[in-house]
Design goal:
mainly alpha; about 80% helix; globular; cytoplasmic vesicle; transport; TPT_transporter; transmembrane; endoplasmic reticulum
């Protein structure tokens, strides 16, 4: 039997080859894609959705404690767990990334510092806002990134993409309106009377203003981080796993320093943040969320390898619905006409955006392909 036909000789060998290919794809970021059957595409999509939902729900659970104010140490523990997980995965041969290099670390440190600001502002906004509102407002980051690419990278915004942006803004307006209305009516009876009503409104608006402040800060920080990282990746040649390893490793000392300087490490405050009754479960949840971050990166690569980047972007758009629903199920976020409308419009905006990017990519590929065909046809 010829060597080239070995792959078809037995199902067992075929399975082994597939495992090797998956490991290689995971190690390099999974750029190469085989034509996968619909059945084989289901597990990575489901795993990606579960990982992203778990990450959001667990983070919301951790920061939702009444007395929780130690966000920096929370993020420090998560980053440490993430580094341990990716190092363990590398030793098992599941992924591959370059070894630590001081020169690379110096070049990448500003990006890691930006990531700290992204994660911190995201955690603070989750502390004050519901998961559906947080999920919807994250869409605004896409708009900032898109126009940042137009300014700095010569990107282009098509008519359909612009239409999706309008829908994203509309969903955010609906979400904010529904959120404020629900918060005010939650303070019934008769939304309290006289001065009591004024005090209630002030308290609600102040609380929401803090949440929306952190949310907009998070959108700006996320867009700056993504655009800066895109530039720096070209300089360093980092793969996805290199990026994750350096991001988390370099953020640990920054987060630890901020925690020591800015947070109260007194016995009383530690007891408030980590009550004895729920301490073990809370610490487990924090460690679990760090592992979930790695799971999202892993399942992202798996999803792209098993399907395509277009399918992955569609899954990302569709995934906003179960993520928003998880807040309503696990945290009792209000299920009202306003909240459901906001989630639905945001969901539709994500779909329109995914389709617009898919169409744009096809048009660019076709243009590139045509440019390559002409010289070949004239070749002597």
């Amino acid at each position: 039997m010829a060597p080239g036909s070995t792959r078809n000789s037995s199902p067992i060998m075929e399975e082994e080859d597939d495992v090797v290919e998956i490991k290689k794809a995971m190690a390099t970021g999974g750029a190469a894609r085989d034509s996968a059957s619909p059945v084989s595409s289901v597990p990575p999509i489901v795993c990606y959705c579960i990982a992203s939902i778990l990450m959001t729900v667990v983070n919301k659970f951790v920061v939702s404690g009444r007395e929780f104010n130690m966000t920096f140490i929370l993020l420090c523990v998560q980053s440490t767990v993430s580094v341990l997980c990716v190092v363990a995965a590398k030793r098992m041969g599941l992924i591959s990334f370059r070894d630590f290099d001081t020169r690379d670390a110096k070049m990448w440190f500003p990006i890691s510092f930006m990531l700290v600001s992204v994660i911190y502002t995201g955690s603070k906004s989750l502390q004050y806002l519901s998961i559906p509102v947080y999920t919807i407002f994250k869409n605004l980051t896409i708009i900032l990134i898109a126009y940042g690419e137009v300014i700095w990278f010569g990107g282009r915004v098509t008519g359909l993409t612009f239409a999706s942006f309008i829908l994203m803004v509309l969903s955010s307006v609906i979400a904010a309106w529904a959120d404020i209305s629900d918060a005010l009516t939650a303070g019934d009876p008769a939304v309290t009377e006289g001065l009591g009503m004024l005090t209630t409104m002030r308290g609600v608006v102040t609380n929401l203003n803090i949440g929306y402040f952190w949310m907009f800060m998070n959108c700006a920080a996320s867009a700056t981080y993504v655009l800066s990282m895109r530039k720096r990746i070209k300089a360093t040649g980092f793969s996805d796993w290199d990026t994750m390893f350096y991001n988390n490793l370099l953020s640990i000392p920054v987060l630890a320093a901020f925690s020591i300087v800015a947070e109260d490490w007194g016995t009383e405050n530690l007891s408030k943040n980590f009550p004895e009754a729920t301490r073990n479960f809370l610490l487990f949840a924090i460690a679990f969320s760090g592992a979930a971050a790695v799971a999202i990166s892993y399942t992202t690569a798996w999803c792209i390898r098993a399907t395509s980047s277009t399918t992955y972007s569609m899954v990302g758009a569709l995934n906003k619905l179960p993520v928003a629903a998880s807040g309503m199920i696990f945290f009792g976020d209000a299920v009202t006409f306003g909240s459901v409308s906001a989630v639905s419009v945001g969901f539709f905006a994500g779909l329109v955006y995914a389709i617009a990017k898919s169409n744009q990519k096809k048009a660019e590929s076709a243009a590139t392909g045509q440019a390559g065909v002409i010289p070949l046809s004239r070749k002597p």
